[in-house]
Design a protein that fits this description.
By secondary structure, this protein is α/β, with parallel strands linked by helices. The chain has helices at 4-7, 59-66, 94-110, 145-153, 164-180, 201-210, 233-251; strands at residues 21-23, 29-35, 43-48, 70-75, 116-120, 132-133, 188-193, 216-221.
């Protein structure tokens, strides 16, 4: 009898047995990606993509992070990219968090003792037990013309629009996050564009003011939009530098990242 992974296929009709994947608590297959450094990793970083997109859009950033001797891993959330699930539908945003925790637990078993960081974009909630969070801050296409073309031609981007059920769960998740902000104690880095039309900068200031973290940093990029890692070159290079320095200072990695292969 064939393994189930040989029968299950991605929404793009590729057998999961040919792809790195995990099976979540609901029995859904999630497509995974891994970027491994050439040296022994000093820390683990999970990259959480934003609404309507997929983790493959973080390949360039992930390869930069491997230059810091960091093992980067990610998966397409349920209903996104190459993972199973109705497009942009989730019963509760906790499903996203639960799946992230499952993936983190699996990686920690293979790499015991390594600190864990979360790098999130837009719809992110830090998993408990993580060593730190670097949300460098989706839905809103990038502002650079070349990146707009890349975004518009990406077949894995969901263009069905925001469904009411997804929007309701998003609002519920935002309310839970707002209530939880005063309980945040772990280190975090917040990077945001002042012209971001999806995430109000007031939220970033609120987190800075309310979180009990002793180690917290906020940087606002004047005139920049939502997708900072796909902005004008000077913005993107600064974002890369900020993440590089922030993570380096908390892992002992050398601040000057090697160029990606």
């Amino acid at each position: 009898m064939p393994e189930e992974s040989s029968l299950r296929r991605t929404p793009q009709n590729v057998p999961y047995q040919n792809l790195p994947h995990l099976i979540n608590a609901d029995g859904q297959y999630l497509f995974c990606r891994y970027w491994k450094p050439t040296a022994t990793p000093k820390a683990l970083i999970f990259v959480s993509h934003g609404a309507a997109e997929h983790c493959g859009r973080y390949d360039e950033l992930a390869r930069m992070l491997t230059g810091l001797d960091l093992l980067v891993f990610a998966h397409d959330h349920v209903g996104h990219g190459q993972s199973e699930g109705e497009r942009m539908v989730v019963s509760d945003f906790h499903v996203f968090v639960r799946d992230v925790l499952q993936h983190v637990d699996l990686m920690q078993k293979d790499h015991p003792g390594l600190p864990v960081f979360l790098l999130g974009h837009s719809m992110v909630s830090r998993p408990p037990g993580a060593s730190g969070s670097g949300p460098h801050t989706d839905g809103d296409p990038p502002s650079v013309p070349l990146q707009v073309d890349v975004y518009n031609s990406d077949p894995l981007i969901c263009r069905a629009g925001l469904k009411v059920c997804f929007g309701i769960q998003l609002l519920n998740a935002v309310a839970r996050v707002e209530r939880a902000v005063p309980k945040v104690t772990l280190p975090f880095l917040l990077l945001q564009g002042s012209a971001d039309r999806l995430c109000d900068t007031k939220g970033a200031y609120l987190l800075m003011e309310s979180a009990k973290s002793q180690d917290k940093t906020l940087k606002i990029y004047e005139g920049a939009y939502h997708m900072l890692h796909r902005e004008l070159p000077e913005v993107t290079s600064s974002v890369i530098h900020e993440i590089n320095m922030w993570v380096s200072q908390r892992t002992g990695a050398v601040a000057g990242a090697r160029s990606p292969p």
